[in-house]
TrEMBL record:
Organism: Bugula neritina
InterPro entries the record matches: Reg_factor_effector_dom_sf, SOUL_heme-bd
Family under the similarity heading: Belongs to the HEBP family.
Descriptive protein name: HEBP2
SUPFAM superfamilies: Probable bacterial effector-binding domain
Amino acid sequence: MPWFNFRTSSAPTTTTAAPFPKPEFCGKYECPEYETEQLRGYELRTYRPSVWASAKVPSLDMEYWENGDDSIVAYMKLFNYIRGANDRNITVARTVPVVYSHEKDEVWMNFMIPANMSDNPPQPTDTDVQIYRADSDQYYVRYNKKAC
């Protein structure tokens, strides 16, 4: 199963560390927890382990799925899963963000499973939806906060 893989090969010097700051874009929704270290021009995020529901995006044409034509297929499979298309017929709370992951010739859309369900998440009834456990990992981030 593919997962995030956006690392750099060498880290700038660390200046400070901070506990998980819930980003504004999370709003009322749960989102992945991480600790931060402020680096020169970057933020190093150490994400905690998490559980995700994943569905493969049917097309490999990047322009096609980025414009929504094919990503809606994966989105609807995941939406149906959180609306009860699972072995317990229960609703799974929404989380943010919706994450795309890429590996070789595959593109996946991913919804995070809420922490209170992560030990024993409901299993999808759609065979195109898979549950994936992500280990703790680190990512270097630089962004314009106005864009979030």
